[in-house]
Structure formats: C-alpha cells, structure tokens
Amino acid sequence: MTNISGKWVAHSRTCAHCAEKIAQNCGMDADKAYVLGLLHDIGRKFGVYHLRHVSDGYKYMMSLGYDDVARICLTHSFNQDKLEAYVGNFDASQEDTELIRIKLKETVQDDYDKLIQLCDSIAGAEGVMDIIDRMSDVKSRYGSYDPEKWQTNLDLKEYFEKKMGMDLYVAVDKDNYIPISSRMVEFRKADIADAEVLVDIYNASFFDDYIKYGECPAYGRTKEMMEQSIIDYPKFLIIYDGKPVGCISCKALEDGIYEVGCLCVIPEFQGKGIGTAAMEFAKSFYSDWKKFTLVTPVDKSQNVRFYTVKCGFSIHSEEMDGNVKVIRFLLER
C-alpha cells in the first residue's frame, strides 16, 4: 500500500518551509534544512502508519544512500532519544522497533535534528501553527503527549529564537505562509486573447531584471509582440486560487528535449511553491521529455538555488545572453 497524497504531504512542505527560513536566519545550510524538512516523513509514502513510518523512512533512505535524510527520518519523532516518548501507536514490527531503539542510542543529535524536531512541532497541513496549538492537536488525536517531550519542544523554540535573534513565527512568516496544493494551482494554455494579461505578468515579474541589467527581453513587450510570442512559444497561464499569477512556456528543440523559455511568478506570489508546481506540470504535460534546459542570470543566486534545489536541475555551462552572463541549466530524466 502506498500513501502518496494526504495531509502528510502538505505538512512536510510546511516543515521544509520553516526549516529553510530558520536556517537562513541562524547561519545553517538552508538548502540542507529544506530537503531534510521535506523528506522527514517520507516513510508515510508506504501507508498510514504510526511508529512504523519512522523505520520505513529510515530504511528507505538508507537503501538510496541518503544517510543524512535517513537520520532525520529516525530522529524527528524523538527529541529526547527516548522510544517510550513516541506519540502514536507502536505498530512497527519487533525487529523494526529494536532497530529504532538501537539507532537512537547510537545517534548524537545535532542542530539539524533539533531543527526538524522544532519544525515538525509547528508544521500543520494548512500552514504554520502555534506550537502549543500543534502539540494540543496531536495530543487530542492520540490521547496523550509525553510531558518531557512537550517541554523539550518549547525549549527548542527558545533555543532557535536565541540563535536567530528574532521571534520564531516572524522568521517562518506564520501569518502568510500556505503550503501549495494541487487544488490551488491550475494551468491553462494561453491563446491570443490572453496577450494583455501575459504582458502584465511579464512586466511585474521582470521589472527588477530590467532595472538591474538595463535590458530584459521579457519586459516591456507590446500586446502585438506577446501575441506573436504565444504563437511561437506555447505558454500556459499559472492560475493560483483563481487568479493568473504567472506563466510557464516551453518549446521543443528536438524529440524529447525542451527549452523552458519562461517560468515566472509575479513577486507577491513568489515563495509559495507555485514555481515548483509549474515545473512539475511541465514534466507531466510534456510526458516524452528526456531533457529540459533553461537559462538565468549568473548573479541571481535565488534563481540558481530554486532551479537546483527545488527543481533538480544541474548547472551545465555559462554563456552570454546579450550583455548578461547566464547559467544554462539541464534537467535529465
């Protein structure tokens, strides 16, 4: 049985978001923190289990050679290295339960273990929760919550607030962050009638590039230019919560090889996972894909990080696009 959907997926996205933001504010590796947060509950892909998801995740990640992730699959549920403090049913086999016990004893937890434990304790399926509300919700669902584990989570909150020098909920943007879901994002193929909407989206998305570089082919297009671009370069409007907020366009270079000419989201909707969802859509829509390639300015570190960490691209080369040095990225199947 597999469990590839449900609240645990949205919870994991929230956990990854929180881990990334906290890491950015206290000198930790934000990319590593994001990945660990995203995969801490990967054991739940095998079914609706309790303690067993810990051993399932640990063994799965170890089998793939991702030891750091496997460790987090193990430690995220145990902020005191105490198996008995687990909140939920003890549904793992005797062999797997003993594996968890042994590995917990062997592991010396570090700040990444602590970080994911904290983020797990504030990550809800619909966004960031108050830590007391989140623990109370877990207690109401499972009937109990180890008092020492409860206090340790509160201590972790204080620990990371001191490291960051700021309030936890401010750091993770508690009031605004919403984990993206397939129900909130839609994609519609653009036609000529969408030209003005796309001009507005491109101008909002690429204004900063135009100001920074003094040139940007995507900025300042006329309606007529956009109409021709829609014909030459198939585009999909990204619709978020019923509102057009971005665009992704791809063009076949040869069989199975596609150039991503544009992937943009207007600034106020960035950081919500919409761009990542758009790339996943492209891989699904162009089902025969073997490679995707695209370019972005070499000095736009946020874009570089997005394509490599969030979308899985690798850096292939550097080249010039007019007067701007760009990185060419490659995603291979």
Describe the structure.
By secondary structure, the protein is an alpha+beta fold. It has 2 domains: 7-171, no CATH class; 185-332, 3-Layer(aba) Sandwich (Aminopeptidase). Helix content is 48%, strand content 18%. The chain has helices at residues 7-25, 30-39, 52-64, 67-75, 94-106, 111-120, 131-142, 147-164, 168-171, 195-213, 223-232, 274-285, 301-310, and strands at 123-124, 127-128, 185-189, 235-240, 243-254, 257-265, 291-297, 314-321, 324-332. The strands form 2 sheets. The protein has a 7-stranded mixed β-sheet, with helices on both faces. Strands 1-2 form a two-stranded antiparallel sheet. A hairpin with a 2-residue loop joins β5 (243-254) and β6. α1 (7-25) crosses α6, α3 (52-64) runs antiparallel to α4 and α6 packs across α8. The protein is elongated, with a radius of gyration of 22 Å. The mean pLDDT is 93.
Task: Report a brief summary of the structure.
The chain has 333 residues and is an alpha+beta fold. It has helices at 7-25, 30-39, 52-64, 67-75, 94-106, 111-120, 131-142, 147-164, 168-171, 195-213, 223-232, 274-285, 301-310, and strands at residues 123-124, 127-128, 185-189, 235-240, 243-254, 257-265, 291-297, 314-321, 324-332. The chain folds into two domains: 7-171, no CATH class; 185-332, Gcn5-related N-acetyltransferase (GNAT) (Aminopeptidase, 3-Layer(aba) Sandwich).
Topology:
Blueprint: H1 7-25, H2 30-39, H3 52-64, H4 67-75, H5 94-106, H6 111-120, E1 123-124, E2 127-128, H7 131-142, H8 147-164, H9 168-171, E3 185-189, H10 195-213, H11 223-232, E4 235-240, E5 243-254, E6 257-265, H12 274-285, E7 291-297, H13 301-310, E8 314-321, E9 324-332
Helix pairs in contact: 1-2, 1-6, 2-4, 3-4, 6-8, 10-11
